[in-house]
Design goal:
With 535 residues, the chain is α/β, with parallel strands linked by helices. It contains 20 helices and 15 strands.
Length: 535
């Protein structure tokens, strides 16, 4: 056992994960890898967004194959145990496990970085094969070839965070190419490599011209169907976790619908929808719905992806915040956090990193967790121009609405309309809805804002569900070339307020006022009108 060869680290890490209260069994992934051992198809690169279980899967694979510890106690009750190949491969392989995000102390250059890996593997091999004369100054691939020649031993390679080197500021472009050549020399055409599993965020083809690492098959959540069920949590899996939560929580206050609203919405190429796994586990463990996505990490900064081309993405952001999907040509090989110029490059990177989801040729914001992150960015980043300005008058807009001050509401809408942007031409109610959503941005701090929500006998444009029971609830209906009175009448006729009344005999969900807000825009006069009634 060593730092890289048959390390205990992935075994212990996966053992900890598997013993967790909200553990989800994804071991069937192993059953898809087992037939590839020793074949030409033995090279896998499965990339996924941050917080979507990259390291968990890598640890699982290393723990299953490796000889560091007896993993029967972990896997005997998991799905992989029913595989015909289970006994044949459980703890029967030498595993070389590399976490490329780890660095030596005081690392300041590429040579220090790569030497730690090469020297570490060589040292482990010398210790693991004491009967073979090993010159640890030689290239690691030469030593591995020599070991194979003398013993016939082959190795499973498990590589986590393979793309970490591309985000390290002290590593230059030439050194990144050297890194690709290192991987090629270590793996390509090597008979001692019986299975290679590599994971990270970014696809290989972003950095490789196709020759260095073209033996890999690449898979990701957005553009490949295979392995889709292993990228996040499915509805069925979250149902099971929620049942555990209800059974063990002394005072459960998260609803199953809350989990869908907050953390669902990621689409896969296979047509399924997935939940952010880390956020689900954290929410159920903490018994709290909060934004776990942007708690740390430079890749969480939404503005970092759009800052070099704000002008082209401004209007799309407004529409996406209102729940619209935006057509985009996702280019998975353009997904890097640096040098993003075109909209498609920007959106591609944001899909790969999990900040947007992609379905049917369109990108969108997947859920409330990310919606809140976008809303926060819009109120914080001045370079967003009109978005920043309108977002920061949204508190005034909310206050005017709660004060029944229709004059101020109309004034703010007029100010928004005079902003130089094609979106404010209001070619349909979609654009009007997007602008209204933006000027009510501050409401998201105190309300759960739902658009086109099923209510009463139809679908309402916006419902503002207050966080506090005694706060005012808001139902907002929009009209183009009609009157605000017509909007109010639609709210009444279709009984949209039913959402706040609760079931017969139950205490109402909200005890404050229910405000019906009708907003209209006249294309001929270019004027907004507003009417607010207490229902």
């Amino acid at each position: 056992m060593g730092t890289f060869l048959n390390s205990l680290v992935p075994f212990n890490s996966y053992q900890t994960t598997a013993s967790g209260t909200y553990f989800v069994d994804k071991s069937s992934l192993l059953d898809e890898l087992l037939p590839a051992i020793g074949t030409e198809e033995r090279f896998f690169c499965i990339t996924r967004p941050r917080r979507f279980g990259k390291s968990v899967m890598a640890n699982m694979i290393a723990a299953f194959f490796g000889k560091a510890a007896d993993a029967e106690k972990i896997f005997k009750n998991l799905k992989i145990s029913s595989s015909e190949l289970y006994k044949k491969h459980l703890n029967r392989h030498h595993v070389i496990y590399i976490d490329f995000s780890e660095m030596p102390r005081d690392c300041a250059n590429y040579q220090n970085y790569i030497d730690r890996i090469q020297n570490g593997i060589n040292s482990d091999l010398a210790e693991g094969y004491p009967d073979i004369p090993i010159d640890t100054a030689k290239a690691v691939w030469d030593i591995l070839t020599d070991i194979f020649q003398k013993t016939g031993d082959r190795f499973v390679f498990v590589m986590d965070e393979w793309d970490a080197v591309f985000h390290m500021p002290f590593i230059m472009e030439k050194e990144r190419m050297d890194y690709l050549l290192f991987l090629k020399s270590l793996l390509k055409g090597k008979v001692y490599a019986e299975l290679v599993y590599m994971t990270g965020i970014l696809p290989i083809a972003k950095y490789s011209d196709g020759s260095e690492l073209n033996m890999f098959k690449e898979y990701n959540m957005a553009t490949r169907a295979r392995f889709s069920e292993y990228f996040g949590f499915t509805d069925k899996e979250v149902d099971a976790l929620y049942d555990i939560y209800i059974q063990i929580s002394k005072n459960p206050w998260i609803t199953r619908e809350d989990l869908r609203i907050w953390y669902d919405g990621y689409h896969t190429k296979a047509g399924g929808k997935l939940y952010n796994p880390r956020s689900i586990v954290c929410a159920l463990t903490d018994n709290e719905l909060v934004n776990y996505w942007t708690s740390s990490g430079t890749y969480d900064s939404i503005f970092g992806y759009i800052k070099d081309n704000v002008a082209d993405v401004q209007d799309d952001l407004v529409l996406m915040l209102a729940g619209e999907a935006i057509p985009s040509d996702i280019q998975e090989y353009a997904a890097t956090s640096l040098g993003l110029e075109t909209k498609d490059e920007i959106y591609s990177a944001m899909v790969i990193y999990g900040l947007l989801t992609f379905e049917d040729g369109c990108v969108s914001i997947p859920n409330k967790e990310l919606m809140d992150s976008y809303a926060s960015m819009m109120k914080r980043e001045k370079p967003l121009g009109y978005i920043y300005n309108l977002a920061n008058i949204s508190r005034k807009m909310l206050k005017a609405t709660l004060d029944l001050d229709t004059e101020t509401v109309e004034e703010i809408l007029g100010y928004a309309h005079n902003t130089e942007s094609p979106i404010f031409t209001y070619n349909s109610e979609i654009e009007l809805s997007a602008v209204v959503n933006l000027v009510y941005l501050a409401a998201r701090d105190k309300y759960r804002v739902e658009r086109e929500d099923k209510a009463g006998k139809g679908y309402v444009d916006f419902i503002f569900y207050p966080e506090r029971k005694n706060a005012d609830a808001i139902i907002l209906e929009l009209k183009v070339d009609d009157t605000p009175e017509a909007a109010i009448q639609q709210i009444i006729d279709k009984d949209y307020a039913f959402r706040f009344k609760g079931k017969l005999g139950e205490t109402p969900k909200y005890t404050g006022r229910i405000l019906a807000v009708g907003i209209s825009y006249d294309k001929e006069t270019k004027e907004h009108s507003c009417k607010i009634e207490v229902l």
